[in-house]
Design a protein that fits this description.
Layout lengths: L2 H9 L5 H11 L2 H13 L6 H11 L2 H15 L1 H5 L1 H9 L9 H4 L4 H14 L3 H10 L2 H4 L4 H17 L1
Helix pairs in contact: 1-2, 1-12, 2-12, 3-10, 3-12, 4-9, 5-10, 7-9
């Protein structure tokens, strides 16, 4: 069974979207999953991007937390990213340091990361794509976003698959 068949089953109401996510992520590339996730994060049917990133951050391991913060830093550049959300990242980084460590990341609350992500989106809309690609590598975390977000992501993936 190919990816398109799995997506058709997932969207066709045959079980919950969460139940199909593992099969989809086994068949789809990280780019395909990331594009679907980015569509969900941009949708007006899901919470704002910052809220979704904050929720994912709260469910993440310290390594994953550092990974998503470093993705934001890489997208915006350390100077711009350090000023986000009242400079919380800037205060955390040592002079010359361009990456957040897992220990540093675990000191931030999901609410602080919600703010950082919301400000990052205002600075550079492409941050949604970069953060989505990062989380596409962690399908277990995607499940925490809930059925609506997953359904939107799967529908976008199906749309993209039928175009290609």
């Amino acid at each position: 069974m190919g990816l398109l068949d799995i997506l058709q089953q997932a969207i066709g109401g045959n079980g919950s979207p969460e139940a199909h996510l593992d099969k989809v992520t086994q068949q789809a590339s990280t780019d395909e999953v990331g594009a679907g996730l980015a569509a969900a994060m941009r949708s007006d049917q899901t919470p704002p991007f910052g809220d979704m990133v904050g929720k994912l951050f709260g469910q993440s391991s310290p390594q994953q937390q550092a990974g998503v913060l470093n993705q934001i830093l890489a997208t915006l550049g350390p100077a711009a990213a350090s000023a986000l959300a009242g400079g919380v990242l800037g205060r955390m980084l040592q002079p010359g340091q361009t990456q957040v460590t897992p220990d540093q990341a675990s000191q931030l609350s999901p609410a602080q990361v919600t703010e950082i992500a919301a400000h990052a989106e205002q600075q550079h809309a492409g941050v949604i794509d970069e953060v989505s690609r990062f989380y596409a590598q962690h399908s277990g975390l995607i499940k925490t976003l809930g059925g609506a977000a997953i359904a939107i992501a799967l529908a976008k993936m199906k749309e993209n698959a039928t175009r290609g």
